[in-house]
Amino acid sequence: MRTIEELQEIAIKTIEQENFLASPKNLYEPIDYAMHQGGKRIRPLLALMASELFSGDIEKAKPVAIAIEVLHNFTLLHDDIMDKSPLRRGKPTVYNKYDTSAAILSGDTMYSLACKYLLRSETKLIPDLMECFTQGIIEVFHGQAYDMEFEERNDVRIEEYIEMIRLKTGALLASALKLGAITALADKKDMDYLYNFGLNIGIAFQLQDDILDCWSNLEDFGKVTGTDIADNKKTFLYLKSLELADKDDKEVLTKYFSSTNFDKKEKEDAIKAIYHKLNLKQIAQQLMQEYNNKAMESLDKIGVDNQRKQNLISFANKLMHRNK
Amino acid sequence: MRTIEELQEIAIKTIEQENFLASPKNLYEPIDYAMHQGGKRIRPLLALMASELFSGDIEKAKPVAIAIEVLHNFTLLHDDIMDKSPLRRGKPTVYNKYDTSAAILSGDTMYSLACKYLLRSETKLIPDLMECFTQGIIEVFHGQAYDMEFEERNDVRIEEYIEMIRLKTGALLASALKLGAITALADKKDMDYLYNFGLNIGIAFQLQDDILDCWSNLEDFGKVTGTDIADNKKTFLYLKSLELADKDDKEVLTKYFSSTNFDKKEKEDAIKAIYHKLNLKQIAQQLMQEYNNKAMESLDKIGVDNQRKQNLISFANKLMHRNK
């Protein structure tokens, strides 16, 4: 069995060696730029790990590994337009480097390219792969739509936030695993357990992202930090702080989250002081741990040797302790 | 055999009775709005006609008929952002009625919904259907990218323009036919002839669109007319006029097409006077006829009774003589 490091290296190489340049140049240059910005290649890695878990024939999982990474990057191109994010992994985002039209059209094309990679799989697997792929991306869109809806609402509940990140982040991680499992001809029940594992590590992953956005820095994180606070994002941290704060702190929180016209530094300091007082970093980490535990319970039920599950266990642990 | 009018009615009803409303509302409302703006439902009709041509079992073609219409409307949502078009079929475009983010995300979701409709087809057909579908939409994106590239270039050749509209308009019409043919289990060679028929009527269709944009009016056409001239679009009319004009007229043409700051009416009148002098409406109509002839030659080669081809022949004739 391959180690997680070996699989990670294969995942990275598989993406890196793909050439996305083609004609028309104005369409494919932004795609090539987006696809070669490095990154952890988590989704391809998950597809390969799922394949390794059930069969070890990872060659068969490579088309879906590329497909899911292209699909993920397509969502980033469009999200960055909607969120007006200037940077990603420390580099200009596509709409910022090129323009909005390029980011829209190159993004659309990436969705098709992702389908094309998927279609390289064995013919008999294609209906199941397409079903999983399509359901996964629809859930991501649902998550993004709820995320946008929440910006306009002042009554977002914590359960709603968790459901949103389950869709926006969890669904694609879970789909990556399931796609790999399909290529390994896994048992239907085992695939469902694995999917559920993916959803829960996805929620834990996003909670960690919220923590890092608040308490990390640009150099480590590769993204501008403090954006959630600056943009009044109703993350778990904010929603929980509203629940726990006394009357005065609640007023401070709602005042600062009612506008983006405050001095960024002043606002960040004021909010973080309240988060600190309420012990929110620890509370968020504890919730992360709960979702990690759920993921582990699900993994436990999969009918293969525990030995084979070690990679996924250490993957989940790494996610919990990452700083970027 | 059903008449073209019967098939058209079925195509329209099939789309009209689909309900696109679901949660999240902010995602599906723009989709429902876009899908229920009426329209000729040409692509579903083509899918049904192809099915009728080979088998007559049009129930099997309905999922692909809906899929191709949803896919087409997805491209319109995104094109309207890129082209800054305020109106479509006389109504506000999605990005104009809602906002750019809604048009991006609802458009993306429509691509996935189109895949979902496709996946309702018989399992054994899905790999071929997905292959056709994916190739078709990639060509549309290529066409749109060339269209954008041409805006920046002053040396676009007429062949390049024809290739662009073959991709941007022809590919999806041809794909609609081929998808219908796949569900009717048509012979591979016949499908290629039918595909080729679709490409050529697509080119004729777009040439007619260019003519209508120039010589029709808002009430008939349902879109703001004269936009090609106002936006310096390098249509066949413009490219051919440059080829035929004398030195003075060429100067007028290039002067007006170098900026969008001219008075719209003054510019339109000046350009149309030159088009009229050069007989461009007739020249464009003649070229349309040539592509129509090519389409007919291709249709002729398909190995089914001529009787069964009558619907496609009258469809092509109608396209040639439409005023909207």
Commentary on this structure:
Two copies of one chain form a homodimer. Chain A has helices spanning 4-16, 25-35, 42-54, 62-83, 94-97, 100-118, 126-152, 158-183, 188-215, 218-221, 227-230, 236-244, 247-256, 264-277, 280-300, 306-320; strands spanning 87-88, 91-92. Chain A has 324 residues and is mainly alpha-helical. Chain A has one domain (4-320): Farnesyl Diphosphate Synthase. The radius of gyration of chain A is 20 Å and the shape is globular. The interface between A and B is large, with 36 and 35 residues.
CATH class of chain A: Mainly Alpha
Estimate the helix proportion of chain A, in percent: over 70%
If you compute it from the alpha carbons, what radius of gyration of chain A comes out, rounded to the nearest whole angstrom?
20 Å
Shape of chain A: globular
- Report the total helices of chain A: 16
Sheet/helix structural class of chain A: mainly alpha
CATH superfamily of chain A: Farnesyl Diphosphate Synthase
Average pLDDT rating of chain A: 95
Work out the number of β strands of chain A.
Answer: 2
CATH topology tier name of chain A: Farnesyl Diphosphate Synthase
Largest interface, counted by CB within 8 Å of the partner chain's CB: A-B, 36 and 35 residues
- Profile the largest sheet of chain A: 2 strands, antiparallel
Q: Give the termini separation of chain A.
A: 28 Å
Strand content of chain A: under 5%
Quaternary organization? homodimer
The sequence of SSEs of chain A as H and E is HHHHEEHHHHHHHHHHHH
Low-confidence sequence ranges of chain A:
none
